Amino acid sequence: xAAVNDEASFTFSWLALKLLGRGLYSNPWSALSELVxxxxxxxxxxxxxxxxxxxxxxxxxxxxxxxxxxSRHDIDTYVKVGYDKRKAESHxxxxxxxxxxxxxxxxxxxxxxSPHFYLSTRHVxxxxxxxxxxxxxxVDLDAHPSLVAxxxxxxxxxxxxxxxxxxxxxxxxxxxxxxxxxxxxxNALGTRLANQFLLPVSATPRILLWVQTSSAQSEPAYEPVGxxxxxxxxxxxxxxxxDSSLQPVELASSAQDLQIPAKGLPGDIxxxxxxxxxxxxxxxxxxxxxxxxxxxxxxxRTYLGVHYRLTGWIGVHATIxxxxxxxxxxxxxxxxxxxxxxxxxxxxxxxASDHLLSQLGLTGTYVNYIEGEITFDLLDEDSLPxxxxxxxxDFDETDKRVTLLRALVxxxxxxxxxxxxxxxxxxxxxxxxxxxxxxxxxxxxxxEQLHADLEQHEEIPQSTRDELQMVITNKIxxxxxxxxxxxxxxxxARTDRAFAVFIDELLRARGAKQEEIFFTSRTGATDVLLDAxxxxxxxxxxxxxxxxxIFYMTSKNFLASQFCLFEGGAGxxxxxxxxxxxxxxxxxxxxxxxTNGRGEAVLLGANNxxxxxxxxxxxxxxxxxxxxxxxxNRGRDIAGEQSIPxxxxxxxPTAVEMAKESxxxxxxxxxxxxxxxxxxxxxxxxxxxxxxxxxSNEAKRIKxxxxxxxxxxxxxxxxxxx
Length: 722
Hints:
Blueprint: E1 7-9, H1 14-24, H2 28-41, E2 46-52, E3 59-65, H3 72-78, H4 108-113, E4 116-123, E5 126-133, E6 146-149, H5 159-164, E7 168-176, H6 183-187, H7 189-195, E8 206-212, E9 223-224, E10 234-240, H8 249-252, E11 258-261, E12 269-272, E13 275-278, E14 296-297, E15 302-303, E16 306-307, E17 311-317, H9 322-328, E18 343-347, E19 350-353, H10 356-359, E20 370-375, H11 400-455, H12 462-478, E21 486-491, H13 497-510, E22 517-518, H14 527-530, H15 535-544, E23 547-554, H16 556-559, H17 562-574, E24 580-584, H18 614-639, H19 655-660, H20 671-681, H21 685-692, H22 697-716
Parallel strand pairs: 2-8, 10-13, 18-20, 21-22, 21-23, 23-24
Antiparallel strand pairs: 1-6, 2-3, 3-7, 4-5, 4-7, 5-6, 8-9, 10-17, 11-12, 14-15, 15-16, 17-20, 18-19
């Protein structure tokens, strides 16, 4: 279609083009979006963006589309800066009859990115390739750069894909400077590109991106770009979509409940059902209407006789804390490269401004919770003057069309902010009610525990106990708030770990939360190892800070551990005898000061064995597990959380009845207890018992000395050593 060395010169000098480009684009990504828009205007169903960022100071950026391509006449048009496609006599070569641009300056985006690029195109009239080389050694600042027809272009990994296209345009820009743009900035490119356009929800057109950062990525790996709008985190949305193809699927489906941080409520969470409503058709009150009264007919929605329409959506986020918002919608992102607090204004499907929110003059906490995407084509109406700023990324704020936009949008944003304030007040009220309920429940549990403790002191007359109950209960209701956090503390020696793990994992399988059980030997636990305080301080904090039920796993290992003795002493000093539990390996190793007057159960049976006998099973249920569950459930009652179901102790029929049914006592055990015992304890018992009954180091040394003495006597007496 074009002979080699055929030329098409730009209508401006290279210096003028450079100055224009610098004024139009603030960064490479804005320029890149212009090149994508050119492809969409050409009727492309797919626009491919390739960024070779392996060498950021000498990067390669390539944009390929499968649109209609460019004829030789279009090449001459391409080099005309200021050519208005919308006012051209014929749109025969323009697939989109309402193109996104109209000033003929989009091609400056390529020149902004690179002084050296190749342009290849396939059109129904034929194919051609062109090169522009405006590097310092190739063109003077005062000279006019030219597209020169060539028969070969720069090769990239996209050669095969380009060869498959019947029509389209390929723009390959060399020596693009991307220094200063880190990995996070490059990774955010997809979202930024997606935000530049309002594309239909359907499969086409699509923008596909591949950023090559490693030589190992030799094959194209394109992914469709997508917006990172966390619709699942929006507490309320107002919207208007006359064209349903532009309505996000998330706003077309039913909204899911979301969670808002609310310290003091159960789980510190308030559950909210999002609301969606249509934008009101009639104009709402706003101070801006007086400024444009002579130019606007609100009832007929016209500006200087030209019809206008506001479409799209505006919403208010439930929370803008990254972790909390991502729990509602993993797409939520807030960092230096993406700020959800935006009102993006689109004109003809292309981003025209993302600064409208700051131009509304609204203040308050929840202004920063607003996000939206709206279309207002009146801002770029062909029959009206152009009001775009010099950098093409905003509009003249003093123009009455922008004033009209503010008059339409500001009441909507005010409404959303007011609704979010109402939601905050509702949450605050619920927190207050929950606080009062928790205090009442905690005082009730305190009174019940106090009564149980006083009943154990039979040496105190009943009348005195009743009086103490009344005095202390009245005190707690007036001046003192009882503890509301209930925990279980498993005190054990490291060598008795299997039994402690058994209790811990069995309770958690039943529904207890990990944080409800303080247990230093839990697999993978590092809270004690990483705590800046000494272990003794950690233990003290967990015994005294919360309403903690202490469980002691006593054994000779327990007696030999200084930490276990510390834990036992702390519990003994801070609790009555009814406030701790025990499981003992043997009678002889139960510390005297931990004997609470009740019957003691031990694990060690005949012949120094440990088995899950009926007695051990039911003691675990009635003496360990269920008291722990009852204690934790008091805290759950206070917190308004679901209770943990208790275990049921086994009831055994007579031996004759079991024999008739061919059953053993084990058939009546709780399956969960059996499962955890076999998985956690049973396999450890042989090694545990061997260690437990192994002579101590002191006993071993005495035995060694006895042998040495016997050998010495034999030598002295010239007798054979035994």
